[in-house]
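Preliminary data (for renewal application), alpha-D-galactopyranose complex.
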Amino acid sequence: MFTRKSSNTVQEVNIWSEPGIYYDSLTRTFRLRCKNSIYAFRVDDSRNLEHLYWGSSIPLEDDLLFLGFGNNPTPFDPKGYIGDVRESLNPLGFADLKQLDSDEVAEKWKTYTVEAHSPQATEPRRLENASWRIWNMDKMRKSGSLSNVDADKMIVEEDSPSKSRVLHVVHEPCSDEACTHGKYLTESWEMMSGSEKEEEEEEERKEGRGKRPSGYSLPSRSGSSKRSPSIRIGEGLERNLSSLDNLQDEFQSCSRFGSFASPTPRQQQQNVWINLDPEIVGKNTKLLEYSDRGTGDYRSCSFELEYSDGTTLSPLVYSSHRIYVGKLSPPFPLPGLFVNSDSDASTLELTMKDPLTKVEVVLYYTVFHEYDVVVRRTLFRNTLDESLIIRRCYSCTQDFDTDDFYLTQLSGSWARERQIVTKKLCQGISLVESTRGASSHQHNPFGVITIGEPAEDRGEAFALSLVYSGNFRLEAELVESGRLRVNMGINPQQFSWNLGPGEEFSTPEVVLCYSDQGLGGISQQYHRLYRYHLMPPMWRNKICPVLINTWEAMYFNVTHEAVVELAKKAKECGIELVVLDDGWFGNRNNTRSGLGDWKANRMKFPFGLEGLCREINELGLRFGIWIEPEMVNIESELYTKHPDWCLHIPRRARTTGRNQLVLDFSQQAVRDHVIEQVSSILSSCNIEYVKWDMNRHLTEVFSQAFPPERQGEIAHRHILGVYEAFARISSCFPHVLIESCSGGGGRYDPGMLYYSAQIWCSDNTDALSRVQIQYGTSLVYPVCSMGSHVSSIPNHQTLRSTTMKTRTLVAMCGTFGYEMDVRQLTREEVEEIKSYVELRNEYAPLILFGTMYRLWNPFSSDSGAWMFVNDEKTEALVIAVNLNRSIGLQLPRMHLKGIQEDWVYLVEELCPGKLRTNVSTGAIETDPRGVFQWSTKMGGVTLKLSGRTLMRVGVPVKFIFEGDSLLFSVRAVSLLV
Ligand code: GLA
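Predicted structure:
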């Protein structure tokens, strides 16, 4: 969409059709243009960051200042202030005035006073006011009654690395002549690739054109300026908006021709900071981007610092910003989203400052161009020459204007993880949080705000997902005005960070996602975003091998012979990888001993892991192991040698969980030891998969390696240590596929996903429980990350029995594997599993990498259903499982999603059932030809229907018994004629 400007002509460009970050210096508004949505905020007259808008796309030309009219202060709200802050920071508007001596200012004041009498003279009136105040201040300063204040500079930088597509902003000086002739100069906008730019420069060199002339004239202003009616703002103050209209005209003409960030000629001449806020209101009234505590905002604050004098105030004001293409990673080892090429994203780095202490808080915003996603994080920089304490530091604050808010969260317990819970918000604070040292089974670092009750395919949804595996908090505070504040980040409970002089602290990233197509729209974006920009890239397109895990087959009774026997039978079933779970190391025969001693138990494995791995490889199978490196049993060699290496408080009892203690991963020595041990196992033989477990939460969070004032840092340092261990091990063994796990799905979060491509969903392998667990998990996490196995019946967690078909279909919607003693299988059962493994392999690319559409919600109906559609929309697979059958009740028709309306599809039922009840007698009958969804006397029927009918009318379906399931393949065959 970009047209280059030559020196004499200007062609109209529409820079805003491109996703990216735009700054309008006149209204001081930042617009973060995502694929189909916009996120906007501005520097208000008090230099706070006022949040303006987050939602579906609107014309970028629209000035969002009108939103300020929604700020209705109550009589009890502390008012905002502008004078002190602006003068002490030398904002744009007063730089020229400040350089003058008091006599000259007095002259200026008179001029402005005269100008201020014109009917449309908002600006002169403000300048009159300002010059009067500056004149007075100058007089006071001269008389010694006011000490000099350092002037801060307002820096606006636009960086653009030379590689890949960039948005260049060339700063060029404004010539006097051009200014007086009303030309718009100073910046030109171009969109070209780095190589294109080089080519153009080369061309210019050849032609001897040299540097482009400074400035390009733009066509005269166009567009009608409609007069706005006079409106009343505040008591007795009437402001005619026509003067604002004038500003908007200038702004719009600037923006229309691509000089969005250029000051108008008038601004250039006068370097004017124009007061634009409809009314100065206090912080409590406004929507803010990042909020301090104690200066008027009574909502839950974004951060809190404590200085050595005991004070905790840190009001922040805008100081500078940079916009660049690409994205910076958070500091190692914090996980974060990455770009595959700079053109994937644009980043805004905005520095705010405490005017008194000069401490800096940098807000990072990255727009992912192909998504409706903004990634935020915050960095604290201590510019003092003494330490300060960070008491609270959320990654983001999201303020919303009044609406009908609902919060949807993923909560549950061990073996019942990530259940979808929705509540209507009412005045007060709702928390979704963990203080367990891990993201936890109980709550997931995720939440979605919807306007009205959440729906799957419609309605606005605003989601937050934190890239962090430790203590987190999402707090949603609905305040008296009906407005909503959502904060998310590290849990401030039990947290503090001692920030030394010159040091920086970065929060984890939070991934904000918007959709006007309900929860489905949110999930589809997260799935793709996390697959391409979060998970280890090595695994993003790999179909994970079908594995068998020894846990439910043998528990601690693993031996060389038993595992080899299991492997042989697994091979017959078509399984490709054998995973040796718990019990293979140290003196590990139960949960009481062995953790920490990562050497094979020679009683059970006389040939070591090497011998076992060799034999399994010789069978043509791959080999993997289970480890739990963050833990230690008291009965272990490690604990005997290093009793101080676990988290504990000297002289106090050490709380065990599952008979184990947590190693203190905040200590480098502890990490080094564990990493060394794990590395030596992984290099001892051909291990291609690791299940990395973590089976208890943290207690006595205290480290021997840190002084008392740093103990509030340990939970965070611990998880950073865990990340470092993941990073070091996976960089030494990049070919090893890591599946992370925590007593099932107790650490299923984006932080873990960054380091491990798969995560074990839950210790509950019951197919019907899994329908809900996996459905809930799919709200955020891609199907290809969900560890899911077929287990034996009765199920070990619920004692429930379900058919092999149902267990297989549910496990197929994830990484897929087996967790059963296949040694016990009959020949027929082996054959049955073999055919299911073939089915899974055939459909794995569609399931793992297709787009997921959820059809029936198992939390609000008796059945769960979803489907996967390939990118071309030519193929789809539908899976549904009944959880609770109400006899006599007909099911609703199943409406498919995501296919083409005007294509014709064949819908074929795969794996029909075997059982039915005789309607006359009630007896159970088996039908060797299969029990089909749609059948005639001749047998099963394949439907041939348009996408439109399949989606709008839906297909009739039935379940014969509780726990029954169905599988349809959908294939496009022709265009609708
Ligand atoms: C956790 C895991 C299980 C299994 C056991 C082994 O509970 O979630 O899958 O690995 O540990 O102790």
